[in-house]
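We store chain and fold; example below:
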Amino acid sequence: MAESAEIVSASSRGEIYFLKWLKQKPEKTQRKIFIIFRKNNIILKRKHLVDTKKKTTATEREAPRKKENIYFVGGSYQNLDARYLPSSGKNQSGQQAGFMTDNLSFILEKRNETFTGGFSGNFSYLQVFAGNRYKPIPQFYFAKDPDFYSAFDGKNSPLPQPILTSYFLGFSSQKEGAGHRLGIYHSTSVSPEPGIYYVSPNRSYSFTWAPHSRIGSLLINDRYSMKDWNLSLQGEGMGRSDQFFGFIYGKIFQASWDLHWEGTAYRDGGNLLSLPVNEMVDRVGVRQDLQYTRLRWKKYYVLEALQSLEGLRYESGYGIHFPIFSSDYGALVLRYRDYRESGISPNHSFGRGLFYEWRKDSYRISLGTEAKEKKQEWEVKLSFPLMYGYLLEMSGIYRDKNIKMRSWFENWSFATNFNINLTERNEIWKLRLIGKEFSVNLSLSQRADTVTYIYYANIQFLHQF
């Protein structure tokens, strides 16, 4: 999953950046990527890797880029079946239609019973965005519609994240928005008064700021390379200057040592990140600060640590994974974890687990069980790249009832490719299939204090012609 996410992220930042990124990879990795591209009819010639710094000729610079119109239709349906949830919040549906050119995008859509739309335009150095779909900043949470999301979000996607009504007017240091972008915005779902925004080239950094209410947002999504070291950093935060919510995720890969490090930290509370920013900063509730880090060596040797402060509940722990048998077909891995909790109800337990794991290229399998407090919990996590650019992912956990300590559950987030949280639910099952034209997300979970289940399904499609 991590390698496929790297490929998608690098390719989304333009051909020149992607070729430079690919040139730094080992020859074996380059061959694998070329095979994947060939299966998906993506043409990328190896000669481009010889010298990406070669200067273009005058004829090449003057040759106009071919512009073609892209028309698209899309749709989504979502169902959340949970006890005590009003019927109006269980079903969400949307339909979209529009067109794109190099410098212009227009969309009409229907979200439930509400008709809306969006417009974006690049006019030389001037940029204009208006409505409920397009924005110049790449933030996931900025002005987010809490009832909808897009599975097809990307730099040049016709269906970026749906937003609440927002307006942007700005200027770029280069034509058609290719350079630094600076402007003003107005979105009452973010701040009552207008604010300013900035976006760096390649959309690696961006921020917004409303001076009077002191509400702002910040995004980082960048990669750095130096010899055998590769670092990626991704994060997004929003809120007031004295009360920020969001996440940050970092990953380091050292090729010659086959060493991976990744760490994440986030601040949330009662799903505040799913709310519009102005509601999030004014909501009074229990805040959660969580940090997790993991060091992986040669695929199956792992050191990990977690700590979380949620109200007066402080939890921490560490884990050790090491294989007792490994081959080309996977490994049997022993996992030891120490769990501690202090605050309202102090507790301590020790977990011993046995897992089968297989990690090869972008494929991941992890199946196993852990004994904790004389009870068992079973875990599964799968990730399989499929044909035509589709990705299948599954994660699940099943816990014996009355386990006092919460479990570490790794799942997916729509804003980042890595997410871990603490859960006391009896079971959680999540399935995701995502590609360029079709996406499905399914989940089932059971709370610890009830026998009823919560069901969730989200299906989306996008067709371009």
Remarks:
- Confidence is low (pLDDT under 50) at residues 45-66.
- The first strand starts at residue 70 and ends at 81.
- The longest helix spans residues 27-39.
- Residues 79 and 91 are 5 Å apart (CA to CA).
